[in-house]
Write a structure and sequence with these properties.
The complex is a heterodimer. Chain A contains 7 helices and 10 strands. By secondary structure, chain A is of the alpha+beta class. Chain A has 2 domains: about 100 residues; about 130 residues, Immunoglobulin-like. In chain A, strand 2 and strand 3 form a beta hairpin. The longest helix of chain A is centred in the N-terminal third of the chain and has 30 residues. The two termini of chain A are about 55 Å apart. In chain A, about 25% of the residues are buried. Chain B has one domain: Cytochrome c oxidase, subunit III, four-helix bundle (Four Helix Bundle (Hemerythrin (Met), subunit A), Up-down Bundle). Helices cover about 75% and strands about 0% of the residues of chain B. Chain B is elongated, with a radius of gyration of 19 Å. The chains are: A alpha+beta, B mainly alpha.
């Protein structure tokens, strides 16, 4: 709260200047001489320059208001509807007055608004199909997400590169061999890389009983699963640690581990368990 | 192309060129709608930074938005002056519009430069890709608009923009205002709404 207040006060000169300019323009606009000679070919009630200036002042004032509510960090539930309404008002003023739709033939409005609503439909459809808009990240991970992560494939080589570079320091390749309990540690979300495990390879000996500790340091929920062994650490929220005990198979080999949340494996959340 | 078409009778009684411009703008809505929707879906899906919150400078972009809004005002004042037969005012406002548009473009160039310096490029992550494609196409629209404004200025200076053909300027104005409303939407959705 104090922080918000400080931010707000920090911007108050800007707000003051903005509203002063808006007030000044409105004041000046009221003094402009009305132009009565607007009886051109089109409709008779054509807006005057004075009206144009007044509209500009309103547009400016709305823009200032939009910036203010963002800066004072209005709660998201209120902020997004407010911003959408405010920008729709601005939109309406420009198309209605500056683009004369209000005074022109209805057919132009029909034509343009038709296209506009189609566009809004396309936007809603695309967003509905491929993603969720500003939901808390741990609720977001629904099955509809798999497609867009395919798109992320371009990033994967780069991410892998970063992941490998990053893993050199805290490398606990394989089992931490203590006598009582063997713990295999795997983390995700290290150094801002959301969709990767670190280390990418863990090793153990056949027949051993190990505890898998999955440390999710990312920003969304993940899990740790080895499909071939029918094993998983249940879904772990951001900044939590999930644990499960695994009996390594008797046969040596390489087993893939993944995050089984749809799309995450495709985004690069895979690694290898090597059983000696 | 002027005189014989201006007075042309059509079945709707409306000028075909104006109708064409509105149809074009309606289709351009779909063009930008797709780009905006793609950006909204993809912007929080980057697996590497920089992320939107790291990089946006709201006060700076607000000034850009203000400049473009004011250019819409000067545009409409220019058309209004032409319809009243005041050619000198027409040219002054036209030039002001072109200058404001160029300031916006300069601001966008500077913003892009800063973003690239901070590590966001077209191929850095999916946020960068969708952001630059969307705002880049908008900037291209503005650039084309500035060229149209300057050619209108030239026509007016050579006396080839009489009040009788004010529709030419009106069409350029429609395009220019459209570019402005697209920025109203981009400014709100891309910059102000947090991801």
């Amino acid at each position: 709260m104090e922080n918000q207040l400080a931010t707000f006060l920090g911007y108050s000169p800007l707000i003051l200047i903005g509203s002063t300019i808006a007030a000044f323009i409105l004041f000046k606009a009221n003094q402009l001489k009305p132009v009565g000679s607007d009886s051109q070919s089109e409709s008779s009630d054509h807006p005057t320059p004075k009206l144009y200036v007044q509209i500009a002042a309103v547009l400016l004032a709305i823009t200032v208001l939009e910036v203010v509510i963002v800066i004072v960090e209005m709660p998201t539930m209120l902020l997004i509807p407010s911003l959408l309404i405010l920008s729709t008002i601005k939109f309406g003023f420009v198309i209605g007055y500056y683009m004369h739709l209000k005074f022109d033939h209805k057919l132009f409005s029909t034509m343009f608004l038709g296209g506009l609503f189609l566009a809004i439909g396309v936007m809603v459809a695309l967003i509905g199909l491929f993603g969720n808009f500003t939901l808390p990240s741990d609720v977001v991970e629904a099955e509809s997400k798999s497609d867009e992560h395919h798109e992320l494939h371009v990033d994967t080589p780069l991410r892998t590169l970063l992941g490998l570079n990053g893993s050199k320091d805290g490398d606990n390749e394989g089992s931490v061999s203590s006598t009582e309990k063997i713990v295999l540690e795997v983390a995700s979300g290290i150094s801002g890389v959301e969709f990767a495990f670190e280390p990418g390879t863990i090793t153990g000996n056949h027949g051993e009983i190990v505890e898998i500790r999955f440390d999710n340091q990312g920003t969304i929920a993940h899990d740790f699963a080895i499909p071939d062994l029918d094993f998983s650490v249940s879904t772990t929220n951001a900044n939590e640690i999930g644990k499960a005990v695994l009996t390594l198979p008797q046969t040596a080999g390489t087993y893939e581990f993944i995050c089984s949340i749809p799309g995450h494996k495709e985004a690069g959340m895979t690694g290898q368990l090597i059983v000696n | 192309m002027h005189e014989e078409h201006v007075g042309h009778t059509t079945t709707t009684g409306l000028d075909n060129r104006k109708m064409l411009m509105w149809v074009f703008l309606a289709s351009d809505c779909l063009f930008f709608g797709s780009l905006i929707a793609t950006y909204m879906v993809m912007r929080s899906q980057s697996v590497v930074g920089p992320y939107p919150g790291d990089i946006f400078d709201i006060p700076y972009t607000s000034v850009s938005a203000f400049v473009l809004l004011m250019s819409s005002l000067t545009m409409v004042l220019s058309l209004s002056a032409l319809q009243r037969g005041n050619h000198k005012a027409t040219r002054i406002w036209l030039l002001a519009t072109a200058v404001l548009g160029s300031i916006f473009l300069g601001g966008q160039y500077y913003e892009f430069t800063v973003f690239v310096a901070e590590g966001l490029s077209l191929d850095q992550n999916i946020f960068g890709t969708t952001f630059f494609v969307l705002t880049g196409f908008h900037g291209t629209h503005v650039a084309i608009g500035v060229m149209m404004l300057l050619s209108m200025y030239g026509a007016s200076a050579m006396g080839k923009l009489p009040t009788s053909s004010s529709l030419n300027l009106e069409l350029v104005g429609l395009y220019w205002h459209f570019v402005d409303i697209v920025w109203i939407v981009i400014f709100t959705i891309v910059y102000l709404i947090p991801s």
